[in-house]
Write the structure tokens for this entry.
Amino acid sequence: MGDFHNPEADLDRFRFRLGFAAATVLLAFGLLIGRFFWLQVIQHDFYQTRAEDNRIALIPIVPNRGVITDRNGVVLARNYSAFTLEITPSRVSDMEATIDALTEVIDIQPKDRKRFKRLLDEAKNFESIPIRTRLTDSEVAKFAAQRYRFPGVEVKARLFRQYPLGNVASHAIGYIGRITDRDLKWIEEAEKQATYKGTDHIGKTGIEQHYEFELHGQTGYEEVEIDAGGRALRSLKRIPPVSGNNLQLTLDAKLQEITEQAFGDRKGSLVAIEPSTGGILALVSNPTYDPNLFVDGITPDNWKELNEHPSKPMINRAINGAYPPGSTFKPFMALAALEMGKRTPSQAINDPGFFNFGNHQFRDDKKGGHGVVDMYKSIVHSCDTYYYILANDMGIDNIAKFMGLLGLGQRTGIDIGKDDSGESKGVLPSPEWKKQRFKKPEQQKWYAGETISIGIGQGYNAYTPIQLAQATATLANNGVMFRPHIVHHIVDTKTGEKRPVEPQPIRDLKLKPQNVDVIRRAMVGVIKEGTGARAFAGAPYEAAGKTGTAQVFSLKGAQYKEGGTKKELRDHALFIAYAPADNPKIALAVLVENGGFGAQSAAPIARMVIDYYLLGKLPAGAAKEDSAAIEEDSEE
Amino acid sequence: MIDVIGTLRRSWQQLIAHIDFPLLFITLAIMAVGLATVHSATFDGNQRVFSQLGNMGVAMVIMWFVSRLPPQKLMSFAIPLYVLGVILLVAVFLFGIKVNGARRWLPLGFTRIQPSEIMKIAMPLMLAWYFQKYEATLKMKHYFGAAMLLLVPFALIAKQPDLGTALLVGSAGFYVIFFAGLPWKIIVGMIAAAAAAAPILWGMMHDYQQKRILTLIDPTTDPLGSGYHIIQATIAIGSGGAIGKGYLNGTQTHLEFIPEKHTDFIFAVFSEEWGLIGNALLVLLYTLLIGRGLIIASSAPTLFSRLLAGAITLGFFTYAFINMGMVSGILPVVGVPLPFMSYGGTALVTLFLGVGILMSIHTHRMLVKK
């Protein structure tokens, strides 16, 4: 090297090194050729034998899916073994003839053939494919007698998902179904392709979908010797699968069942939450459906019936139905007023039965008004005028801000469905919301008059039952808010370790205790002497609640007559409650579609739920509509 | 009329002025073998064959375009490309998405890219530029500078972890330094140091990398995991014998025993069906490719173009040798595709970028001398 630099010498050195490189390349390639010669000529017979006679196929062994139990260990989803009739394609020469012959022995429907054909296209030919599932004992016996006629056809035991309680909690648990292209994409994104080899079912909705990768487990393998034609000869080695993790819910299956029965044939929803944890105790959406129908592929007839039924049983009203909260909104309005210093508890108005704003008159339900009304009375007697004025004084921005903190108009993030896109947001009305919602400029403007009906939970207000239940639970828990969740913990099958799902609160609203107390006393008043008094007559515990009625459509000046309106146009009945008032164990929101007054149809359901949860008292029958409740308490 | 033909001929000649035909024909031959093998290895109605044809079209347009750029122009890309590559590698380190436990991909909204691929070209380009710049004043310290330029991207890629690509990028850089005249003493010293450091490196390796090396020594220890690939590929090659089982008749392939049979393990498919004779012909094709590349390097006029051509050519060798070596079980499985054979667009584009550079260097050499 050195300072002196000679280009000629450099070029020579470069060319020498090129030559060195060329020699290395030749040497390396020579080495490769030597290796090939070793494998392909000298060792050829050995490898030839291995390739021709000893092929090892890895056949996946599908793990047991995790079991779902309620908070008391009642099984909600499990697996059971059933016999299936299966065909190994590589061992059958004439498939059509074989299936035709089988049809004489065992009942095989066209839909079974169709499914078999689809599976056949996807599978490798040394795996057996089911042609009939869930054979009865007599079918198994029948086939066994004829077995000699059908080489390549055998009866196998496979695991099926089963929901022992049928319709109970179906909206929460969800169901599994066959893997579709969309599911495959999901598996790919999660990088789980390896463990889904051999799996043909996946969670489609509810908990089954949300916790899919917990429930699924780890696929095992069986090393099978197969011959050149792909026929399995014998098993060499087995790596057992690891079962999926079990889930224990916060849900109380009995409570859920009682609540669903309480709804009877009425449409609606109830969400009950443990305020101190956010754990869901009951999540009802009525009507329900039987998830067992989906497990083996739902028949087109059943699917059509479920989807086209006018009461829409497939919709999970608890998280997807958005309803105006009606008067159940009032306690939250009152709390907002106290927290923001817009009202004191004793500040009173004189209610003439209406509130004039501009040239529009907002009427109270009670003709002639409630007279002098303070905050307590405004809640107990559900005075509209009080809230018309309050809403006007607070302004829409303040209302939206406070209600937003309570989680209204936002997805709660409950652990149901694949992600939270399955949950509706509802509508938290605000000028910003209106700007986004509407296109025309004249529709985008927020009118001060619109704020007034927001105050009584009408107008654009629309919230899901789970949002109302969460807000009620937050109120019951003095402003400490939890994400509603339905799985209490996951039991790791490998380690036995229990992983809790939601140990931490998501937010503390830092409410002033004296303000919370004012609202609590007023809501206790509702139960003791107000609109909830009849439904809760004789209750041995102190409950706090509020009835509500949400207009399905505007009655434009006409007097509301409950008997004179068609059932589907009747108002929705609502009720929110928590109990015991001084140490809440349960908070809930009930909605009965077209149920009329909240006191009439929603409150009795709440009573039944709280009675069972706190006292273990079983109801005598379905919660009846209490028409008498209207005559006495028509003031909401 | 004559004029039209004359014009056409001139524009055609203009169009192919920078194509090096020996190089073109050799690569076309290897690609034809590759396409036929992809056809045998996949059962998807030739979807991948057509898709690969599309990849080839794109890659060859890029080659054509690059071949027209004079080496001086290529030099001006050295720093920007290298800096961009390093920035993207750092971005991968920070924001990359994990696929199969390795952070290699950078999401770009509409697509995702693998920045380590850029380095396969950027590294030799940068180092060739570097030695050209210090050609007249080359001292020992410049080798250290070059080593630094090499080690930063190498470490970032190895960290992802992507040992295969790190080796390819590292070797491409090393070839430049080697051709630039790195003293033999140092080379021998490095080999000795590497031998000494092997146990330490072993400790730094990821579990799956250690496992791959262990199963290489004895594949039967892990027949279901990483040994499975090697065992099945070796059976495919061995059972192919001297003359092969015949095209489309590879049982190992068609019973789906060979993993990744149209990408990294395509050689096993080829070897099973064409036997030792096919293998020898394929190795011959690669030898011709490398020979042509070395001739181009030897006759290149400037230090920059010499180093670049030499490094790119040896890069092709490294790809081919590592791939065939790993499939036949004498090298660890590191995830390197077989050049011009394996299915995949990204690798093909990178390869033809290299071919384009070689053609540029060769067809512009007279112009430089003038």
